[in-house]
Amino acid sequence: MPERQVTEVEGRRLVLSHLDKVLWPATGWTKGQALYYYAQVAPHLLPHVRRRPATLLRFPSGVGEEGFFAKNPPPGLPDWVRTMVVDSHEGPKDRVTVDDLPTLMALANGYALELHVPQWNADTGPADHDRLVIDLDPGPGADVMLCCAVALLVRERLAEDGLTAHVKTSGSKGLHLYAALRPSGASAVVGYARTLAERLAADHPRHVVSRMAKALRRGKVFVDWSQNTTAKTTAAPYTLRATATPGVSTPITWAEVEQCTAPGDLAFTPEDVLARTAEHGDLLAPLLGEAAELPDSD
């Protein structure tokens, strides 16, 4: 395969390079395969990341070598890639918004293997959030089956408050639960998520912890409410994950959560995900629809 290939994506010229480069040594999965996956899954991925400032996890030397998070636009991006200005502790900074397929492909070509986005977008601004996210992270000795049991508890609590929970795998060990919100103040969303986590930990102390300290997490699921803070980002739906073998943060059904009996039940390869979207479409599509009012956290 040529070292460089010039192509056109939706009217944008792209120079793709090193397509044969192995990025996942454990499986021999290449940069070309990563680009193909993103091109195929883009219709389902893009609606969940569009107009949200992206944080990129880049692995120029492949998984297993040192990677790094990048908030600033990577060098060499085409000038047509859209950005937005975001306030940071260092002052206003440009951030990439992954609004279209050419941008997605340009970023993946630059070894941005993972996409992470916040729970707010350019329309709401950072002061207001349009999503609630609950990150279920298993501690040592816990697994995704325990995450599933806790996810059902979270779903029940959210439903009691008029919120509809949607679920996906993290692409690693845990689960992410989302609820669509009418734009709500960031501090109120954080307060609600924290209260929910603390109440679950109080009611189910054998299985749930709401504090981040690693010493508290053995055999339990950490209900990470802090992912709702304005500065935090969460792995986007359908993003690849830089795990030893290519993983994907995959939308799943509640039936799959209820029926999970082994970690492998909720581990999906990129090929699995493309087959799932071909059969079911975007299982997270309802998250893009009607939103609910954030309840009080009292």
Automatic annotation (TrEMBL):
<dbReference type="Pfam" id="PF21686">
    <property type="entry name" value="LigD_Prim-Pol"/>
</dbReference>
<feature type="domain" description="DNA ligase D polymerase">
    <location>
        <begin position="30"/>
        <end position="283"/>
    </location>
</feature>
<protein>
    <submittedName>
        <fullName>Non-homologous end-joining DNA ligase</fullName>
    </submittedName>
</protein>
<keyword id="KW-0436">Ligase</keyword>
<dbReference type="GO" id="GO:0016874">
    <property type="term" value="F:ligase activity"/>
</dbReference>
<dbReference type="InterPro" id="IPR052171">
    <property type="entry name" value="NHEJ_LigD"/>
</dbReference>
<dbReference type="InterPro" id="IPR014145">
    <property type="entry name" value="LigD_pol_dom"/>
</dbReference>
